Structure formats: structure tokens, C-alpha cells
Amino acid sequence: MSKQELVVLGQDQSGCCPALLTAPLDEGQAVELAKVFKALGDPVRLRLLSMIASREGGEICVCDLTPAFDLSQPTISHHLKLLRQAGLIDCERRGTWVYYRLLPETTDKLAAVLTRPGQPTATEAPS
């Protein structure tokens, strides 16, 4: 068995923001993070993100999202558009339907920013 060191993906902080408790954010980092937090600041968008992220197989059709809400289809599409613009989800059109999937690199960055130094992140297994 090889004794290579395993690299935990998503742990490279060079292209990401520092943890909030280790260094102040610069203006650009704060602007980028604020976009994501603003997108997550609405209960409908938070529920949509949760439904997409927790879906078995990693993606869900818009036709399965819309009935879960007492909102019109254009309103759901608007919320999904804001989540896409924030970099939290992506989509793919297949025929007449659009399928949405989580972009884990964005949620991993959020987790890294919000994690206290020395604390395991969601992607790290406890020792």
C-alpha cells in the first residue's frame, strides 16, 4: 500500500477568503461573500438550495422544485437565477426541462470562511 499523503480538496485557501477569525477581509472578498450571503438570506432560496443539494443523484428538475412552493413558476425561476448568479448552483437544459445542481466549491469556500482555525471543516473527518 502506498504511503502518499492525501490532499483534501477544497482546502486551498490561495483563491479563497481567509477565515473571518484569522484575518480581516479585504473589500473585494467582502463584496463577493456578501453576494452569496444575500442570495442565502431569503427563506425560499435557502429551501431551494437545500432541495437541490440534498437530492439523490446530485441534481433536480425544476418541475420537481416548483410544486413544493406556493409561488408562481416565474417567481421560482427568479430565485433560481439569483442562486446561479451567486455561484451556488448551476443548471442544464434537457429538452423542455432545466436540471439544477449544487456547486460545492462555493459552499466549501463558505464553510472555510466560517470555520474557526484548528476546527475540522465539513469535508474533514474527525480524528
TrEMBL record:
Q: Which UniProt keywords apply?
A: DNA-binding, Transcription, Transcription regulation
Q: Where is the HTH arsR-type domain?
A: 25-122
Task: List, alphabetically, the PROSITE patterns matched.
Answer: HTH_ARSR_1 (PS00846), HTH_ARSR_2 (PS50987)
Output the Gene Ontology terms for molecular function: DNA binding; DNA-binding transcription factor activity
What InterPro entries has UniProt attached to this entry? ArsR-like_HTH (IPR011991), ArsR_HTH (IPR018334), HTH_ArsR_DNA-bd_dom (IPR001845), HTH_MetalResp_TranReg (IPR051081), WH-like_DNA-bd_sf (IPR036388), WH_DNA-bd_sf (IPR036390)
Q: Which Pfam families match?
A: HTH_5
The protein, known as: Transcriptional regulator
Q: Which organism is it from?
A: Streptomyces kanamyceticus
